[in-house]
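Recall the central idea of this unit: under ordinary conditions, the amino acid sequence of a chain determines the structure it adopts. In this exercise we apply that idea directly, starting from the sequence alone.
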Amino acid sequence: MQHLAVREHQRKFFSGIRVLIGVIIVGLAFFQLFITFRGLDQPAAMDQAQIARQIARGEGATSKMLRPIDVKAMDTVKKREAINFNAFADTNYAPLYPRILSTAIKVTGYDNFESNRMDAELSNVYGGDRVIAGVSTIFFLTSLVLAYFLCIKLFDEMIACTVVAFMGLSELMLQYAVSGLAQTLMMSLLLGSLLCLTCAIHHDKEQRPSACALWSCLSFLCAALLCLCNYMGIWIALGLVLYCGLNFKPKGLHAAYGVIILCFLVLLPALSACAPTGGITDKFLHAVYFGFGGESGHQLMRSTAEASVDFNNSNFFLRLFGYTFAQFNTLYTNMGSIVVTPFFLLALFNRFKSDIVEGVKWCVFFMWLFSCLGLALFGETAPLGVSQLTILFAPVFAAYGLAMVFNLLARMNLGQNLKPMRALIIFCMLIISSGLFLFQLPKQLYLGLWTSARGLPHYPPYYPPKLNGDLYDMTNSEDIIVTDQPWAVAWYADRKALWLPRSIDEFTTVLEPIFGRGNQGIQGFLITPTSHAMPAGGVAGIINDSADFAPLALEGKLLQLAPKHNMAFADLFTEHSNNQTTTRTLGSLVSSSGQYPYRNFLLGADIIYYSRTPYNKR
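Accordingly, the structure predicted from this sequence is:
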């Protein structure tokens, strides 16, 4: 009877803990979404959002953001036939996540741009941003539930509750929750795949081959859906294929199941989706180029050929080796600074009693190892990014790391002091992992509620009210805006936007003829703080990044330094220093005597729109 009473007491205790953790985490998630939310700040999130809006309108997976390299590639595929820029196919993102976003956009009515214009007097945050962030927040909460059930199957309720607390109080996790990126959905699918894998391992040990095959196929199905959220997920799927091929008998059969599922659900759709701009091989090479180009990877997207950007062939393998080790070096920060995650590497040397726990451990290791190779190959090291995969493993790494810590404590023969010591260690680890974030909450609450009732946008470089307002009013939906912020223009202004090329020669001799064949005009140039706010290397960094268009990027800075002169910097670039060249000058485009002579100051000299005709604000 006493034993039953103790178990009932423990059940009530953990029930209360679950409710408390759930209330705190859901409260924090909605606190970020509705009080301190500043809008989207990830270019990929805005880009996928505008694609999702096109899908919600029934226009398919088309994009209003145009990359010069994609425009040239599509022109080559079409053999110089006219391109329909009103239905420019997107070939840069996996198809699943934009379609999920499109459902949310359709349900909330944000597919109708006109009826959901921003009122700058009421808010600086675009309502559509909150819809996109709300989707990623829902999947974040879903991943917490799945992490809880996975930890219950692998370990016990104490570890499950602690891991969920670690996730819910991690600043990086909460940033992903409102980022609008697909990582929270990918985390849910990864955890779902591992849950199915635990069932497959269980049935394999029980010698039920049919049930084992069914659950392993379901695990591969979740992995395939993960790949359809982000093609980088294929690296994780390869780790799953390797583990299943080695672990389940007969050897290699389950790996064959996985390869078949991935080919039909991922490879064939990817081949079809990438066909309009040269095929999946070109996309793969561009991605590698993006990560290992001698200069910024973005410069490749802004060119019309790989030869326009240097590729450091001599140091390729050296840099690949360096990027691989960088994944280990940044493991702690890229997993949300959860203090126990590095202990997973120690858990690899510990033999757990349960075959399921041991099997999932090695599967996760293979998945993570392959993801490190993928991240190294594509040069991804930033903690928050569209291609980042490390964060997906944080809950599983934390669970095994915590189990390792508890195992070490159990071997210390603490007797009656074991449970208090566990509680103290959990408390200390939570403070270390999330203390700084929790201490900043009062300040964030103050800023969210009292400092700016209209919201604080991510400025610089983004100021949605001006794109959604003035820029939309002074432009038309037919012609293209050339800008350094095309993802934001496409999302906030609902206009077709070409990523500002680096070369005037490529713009005038390659891109303009392509636009001409498609009866597509250029209506103006928009320069924002993306080009000139806090660049790496100062003025030299601006010149290196903007190349031939650097005078436009610098003009706003010069006007701020000498506002009374109101000089047009591009007027100094109306002639070439080399009289033998026949290429057009910058001055022929945007100077006071060029094609786009009028400067419209949307936000002082920080955001300037160069147009053919002056704009009279209503």
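The CA atoms of residues 244 and 384 lie 30 Å apart.
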